[in-house]
Design goal:
There is one protein chain. By secondary structure, this protein is of the alpha+beta class. Strands 1-2-4-3 form a four-stranded mixed beta sheet, with helices on both faces. Strand 3, helix 3 and strand 4 form a beta-alpha-beta unit. The relative contact order is 0.22.
Length: 123
């Protein structure tokens, strides 16, 4: 009997997989290889010299006024990244919110995040 859990690597989200410093964010913002757009979200993607992909989020109070909503976006992005990271190349990814998310539901927000990760995986 095959054990499917042992077939996939352990999906975890470690500190090494996060963009932490302003300089790391600046590198991605200043010279992105790709910009992936959705109606409310956008991702800047750039190759990195590290042994794994990394993700960062720049979600402002102006676009997402409540902490609950900001944390929800971050949770969705981290979860999707955690499950897809082992298939991805060594890239730095920074998510931003282009316009207010008041007019969309949680499912649409999840779909936009999933679509961004699908586009990142294709290339």
């Amino acid at each position: 009997m095959s054990n499917t859990l042992s077939d996939t690597p352990a999906a975890s989200f470690t500190k090494q997989q996060r963009l932490l410093t302003p300089a790391a964010f600046r590198e991605v913002f200043d010279a992105p290889e790709r910009k992936i757009h959705q109606s409310h979200l956008m991702a800047f993607v750039r190759a990195n010299e590290h042994a794994q992909p990394r993700v960062g989020m720049a979600i402002t109070k102006r676009k997402v006024p409540t902490a609950v909503a900001r944390n929800l976006i971050k949770r969705y992005v981290r979860e999707e990244f955690r499950t897809k990271a082992f298939k991805m190349e060594n890239k730095d990814i920074v998510f931003i919110v282009k316009k207010s998310i008041k007019d969309i539901g949680n499912e649409e927000l999840k779909n936009q995040i999933i679509n961004i990760f699908k586009k990142i995986e294709k290339k």
